């Protein structure tokens, strides 16, 4: 399989996952705000911090008001993590391999693109319309995943889609946990404790994990247990542990996978090492930082091994030790030039 | 015969299916009587089905407009164009002869240049050739073949003579549409296939594969073949992906390939670099290798020419083959056939005036209102002047251009292109057509059975190019035996 095609499949899956995650986060945060006491020190900026685009926002808008932040996260094409941008990029990445995926996939992705293009801006203004819009994005994205799971041969192309989806999902889960713990871990008073529970419920809801947490962990929602669940649960599909496991399964069928499997094993080992008994903010933050770096190196190994065969032998060592967030804007279709050949 | 009652009044040129005595030509007898039997409503219903099939099969081509690039459904007419096998055999032989001579010519130009030294081909034309690639001097591609895939345009004039209008030796397209047209017809008129028995065409992609495999530098049972496309925004992208798919080849863009320090071309795959044996390129020379040609090209592969010259990879059509894709060179093809093959040309050229020749130019400037003027290196029917239909201002402008750059223009008499019955609205009307067969040459020569018939969809128009609104038809070669079979 061509490296270019594999890379485009991987990034298409990441962008689609990111668009859904963003839609979930915004919806859950909106619901959460309705429950918070008026004095709670919590604002929309948490979303910017989770997505790692607070600085980008700052340079562009400055003021942290709901309207602008929503516009930035949903409809601003200059923000590479905005929902419109993610879906646009997913569509562009998929244009060159229409024959590799089931033909229905392209049609549905294209129609999601058209839907988002037409309705994104109008959804920013009021919470009701926004909720409807974001729910539709989530539902349509689910249909896309279901289509591939239900109709696509589990060939190499499928595995790259799976790698991209789980990489993005694990990344998003660690970000959410990291930012949330930074916001609420110091539990000074009663208000803070109540706030804490609400926030963690919000987090679980954002990941559609609330019911599963209740069933499999506890009726009470406590910070360290939620962190434990989201990071290490073996069975819930959005946990870091589960995502890494899915990537391992995907990689097992791909050629020359030893370096990538090694990076994955290191990541899993770190998951096992965490002692959640005496959780404190600084330790957890440092730990999640390492986890992010692990994801970053897994990504780089996959990139070097499969997408960039020229640099694979290490002759041109990729010296850039960037965090995953910096690498986010992956390749658009590399073909955005006009044609030249004659007909 | 209701179906054709109005047809005759529109008939102005040689018609492929109906003769001047209002009789159906033998080759079309069964077709026309079957269509008459079906009746116009059924034919219209089949056209609708054809359009639905084209949409469903995703057969598109891209048109450039100011509003952006649009993928259009392939325009298709349901009435096939018919040719008798005995006539076709002569055409086929003529095309093979031409391509053989053209390949001798290209090989000669890049090596001994004996045709120039012997004074048969003017040195001045060679010197001013825009598509001559000096870097190809001294290269000996496998089997001495440069133009492996050629699409020649044929037209029939009012007296019934078939002329070669031009030979496309760079990146000729259309063959996928020829194949898809046949698929659609099989779906729509299966019963007609039984009674008319057109000869099959669907071995083309296998023969193309054989042709490409034959020039592989490595002897392997399955050489690695790639189709090199400029990408999804190219007008013929559908064809590139179709051919790659049908041959089981990789469809690649320039960035999918690289040339190693060993001057070998590699494919970037998830299993690592994989050596490439043959490149069927669908991008022009100019964009092939930024190291040698246009340095700003992002479509090509740096170092590709090094690899090709060294012989580690084969390229079809070879770089530099376009030197023969020049309308001035075209005028010399009959001479080439005599010079290299020592044969008389089987198929005639359209009489051609070279504006670079003083007496030809004087004649052309005198007779602008009778002639078609063509720039020598354009394709797609662009930049032409159709004298009889041009305004005096347009003719004046062209006269100036010819005087400024005579090498760049040729002129030909306006042919009365033959017509064929075409479904227009509620009835059949004559529309002008041409024919593009595809010729393959490597260790063997092969000509498609028929070719892509292109149709000028506007009444009276001579412009058949799909990029300019032309349509297409399936082309049926039918074997009538020795005798024309008129109805009892």
UniProtKB/TrEMBL annotation, chain A:
<protein>
    <recommendedName>
        <fullName>DUF403 domain-containing protein</fullName>
    </recommendedName>
</protein>
<feature type="compositionally biased region" description="Polar residues">
    <location>
        <begin position="333"/>
        <end position="343"/>
    </location>
</feature>
<dbReference type="Pfam" id="PF04168">
    <property type="entry name" value="Alpha-E"/>
</dbReference>
<feature type="domain" description="DUF403">
    <location>
        <begin position="1"/>
        <end position="307"/>
    </location>
</feature>
<keyword id="KW-0614">Plasmid</keyword>
<feature type="region of interest" description="Disordered">
    <location>
        <begin position="318"/>
        <end position="343"/>
    </location>
</feature>
<dbReference type="InterPro" id="IPR051680">
    <property type="entry name" value="ATP-dep_Glu-Cys_Ligase-2"/>
</dbReference>
<dbReference type="InterPro" id="IPR007296">
    <property type="entry name" value="DUF403"/>
</dbReference>
From TrEMBL, chain B:
<dbReference type="InterPro" id="IPR016450">
    <property type="entry name" value="UCP005522"/>
</dbReference>
<dbReference type="InterPro" id="IPR051680">
    <property type="entry name" value="ATP-dep_Glu-Cys_Ligase-2"/>
</dbReference>
<keyword id="KW-0614">Plasmid</keyword>
<protein>
    <recommendedName>
        <fullName>Circularly permuted ATP-grasp type 2 domain-containing protein</fullName>
    </recommendedName>
</protein>
<feature type="domain" description="Circularly permuted ATP-grasp type 2">
    <location>
        <begin position="80"/>
        <end position="456"/>
    </location>
</feature>
<dbReference type="InterPro" id="IPR025841">
    <property type="entry name" value="CP_ATPgrasp_2"/>
</dbReference>
<dbReference type="Pfam" id="PF14403">
    <property type="entry name" value="CP_ATPgrasp_2"/>
</dbReference>
């Amino acid at each position: 399989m061509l490296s270019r095609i594999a890379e485009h499949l991987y990034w298409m899956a990441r962008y689609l996952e990111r668009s859904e995650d963003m839609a979930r986060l915004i919806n859950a945060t909106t619901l959460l705000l309705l429950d918070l006491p008026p004095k709670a020190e919590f604002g929309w900026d948490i979303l910017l911090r989770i997505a790692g685009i607070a600085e980008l926002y700052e340079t562009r808008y400055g003021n942290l008001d709901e309207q602008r932040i929503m516009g930035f996260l949903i409809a601003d094409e200059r923000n590479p993590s905005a929902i419109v941008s993610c879906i646009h990029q997913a569509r562009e990445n998929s244009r060159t391999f229409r024959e590799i995926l089931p033909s229905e996939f392209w049609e549905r992705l294209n129609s999601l693109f058209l839907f988002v293009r037409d309705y994104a801006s109008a959804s920013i203004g009021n919470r009701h319309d926004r909720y409807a819009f974001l729910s539709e994005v989530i539902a349509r994205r689910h249909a896309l995943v279901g289509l591939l799971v239900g109709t696509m041969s589990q060939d190499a192309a499928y595995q790259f889609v799976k790698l991209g989806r789980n990489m993005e999902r694990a990344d998003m889960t660690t970000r959410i946990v990291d930012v949330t713990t930074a916001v609420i871990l110091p539990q000074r008073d009663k208000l803070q404790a109540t706030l804490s529970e609400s926030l963690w419920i919000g987090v679980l809801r954002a990941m559609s994990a609330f019911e599963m947490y209740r069933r499999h962990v506890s009726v009470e929602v406590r910070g360290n247990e939620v962190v434990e669940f989201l990071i290490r649960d073996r069975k819930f599909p959005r946990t870091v542990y589960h995502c890494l496991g899915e990537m391992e399964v995907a990689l097992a069928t791909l050629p020359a996978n030893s370096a990538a499997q090694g990076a994955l094993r290191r990541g899993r080992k770190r998951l096992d090492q965490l002692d959640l008994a005496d959780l404190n903010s600084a330790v957890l933050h440092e730990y999640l930082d390492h986890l992010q770096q692990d994801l970053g190196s897994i990504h780089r190994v996959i990139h070097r091994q499969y997408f960039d065969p020229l640099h694979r032998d290490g002759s041109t060592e990729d010296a850039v030790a960037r965090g995953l967030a910096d690498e986010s804007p992956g390749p658009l279709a590399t073909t955005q030039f006009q044609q030249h050949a004659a007909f | 015969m209701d179906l054709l009652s109005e047809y005759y009044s529109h008939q102005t040129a040689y018609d492929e299916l109906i003769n001047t005595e209002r009789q159906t030509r033998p080759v079309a007898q069964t077709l026309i009587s079957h269509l008459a039997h079906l009746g116009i409503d059924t034919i219209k219903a089949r056209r609708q089905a054809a359009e639905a099939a084209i949409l469903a099969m995703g057969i598109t081509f891209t048109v450039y407009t100011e509003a952006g690039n649009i993928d259009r459904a392939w325009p298709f007419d349901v009435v096939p164009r018919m040719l008798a096998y005995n006539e076709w055999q002569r055409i086929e032989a003529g095309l093979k002869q031409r391509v053989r001579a053209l390949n001798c010519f290209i090989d000669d130009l890049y090596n001994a240049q004996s045709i120039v030294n012997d004074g048969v081909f003017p040195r001045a034309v060679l010197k001013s050739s825009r598509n001559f690639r000096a870097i190809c001097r001294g290269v000996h591609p496998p089997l001495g073949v440069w133009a492996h895939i050629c699409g020649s345009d044929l037209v029939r004039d009012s007296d019934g003579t078939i002329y070669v209008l031009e030979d496309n030796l760079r990146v000729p397209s259309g063959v996928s549409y020829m194949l898809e047209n046949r698929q659609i017809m099989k779906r729509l008129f299966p019963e007609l296939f039984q009674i008319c028995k057109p000869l099959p065409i669907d071995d083309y992609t296998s023969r193309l594969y054989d042709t490409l495999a034959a020039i592989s530098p490595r002897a392997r049972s399955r050489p690695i073949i790639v189709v090199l496309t400029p990408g999804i925004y190219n007008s013929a992208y559908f064809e590139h992906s179709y051919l790659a798919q049908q041959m089981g080849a990789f469809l690649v863009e320039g960035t999918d390939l690289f040339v190693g320090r060993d001057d070998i071309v590699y494919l970037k795959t998830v299993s690592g670099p994989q050596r490439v044996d043959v490149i069927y390129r669908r991008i022009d020379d100019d964009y092939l290798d930024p190291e040698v040609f246009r340095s700003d090209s992002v479509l090509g592969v740096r170092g590709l020419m090094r690899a090709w010259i060294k012989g580690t990879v084969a390229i079809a059509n070879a770089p530099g083959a376009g030197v023969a894709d020049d309308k001035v060179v075209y005028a010399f093809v009959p001479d080439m056939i005599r010079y290299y093959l020592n044969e008389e040309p089987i198929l005639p050229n359209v009489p051609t005036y070279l504006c670079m020749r003083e007496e030809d130019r004087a004649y052309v400037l005198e007779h602008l209102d009778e002639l078609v003027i063509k720039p020598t290196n354009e394709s797609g029917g662009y930049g032409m002047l159709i004298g009889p239909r041009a305004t005096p201002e347009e003719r004046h402008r062209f006269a100036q251009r010819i005087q400024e750059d005579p090498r760049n223009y040729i002129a030909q008499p306006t042919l009365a292109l033959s017509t064929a019955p075409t479904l227009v609205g509620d009835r059949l009307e004559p529309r002008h057509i041409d024919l593009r067969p595809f010729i393959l040459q490597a260790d063997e020569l092969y000509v498609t059975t028929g070719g892509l018939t292109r149709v000028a969809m506007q009444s009276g128009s001579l412009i058949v190019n799909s990029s300019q609104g032309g349509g297409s038809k399936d082309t049926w070669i039918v074997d009538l035996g020795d005798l024309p079979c008129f109805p009892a």
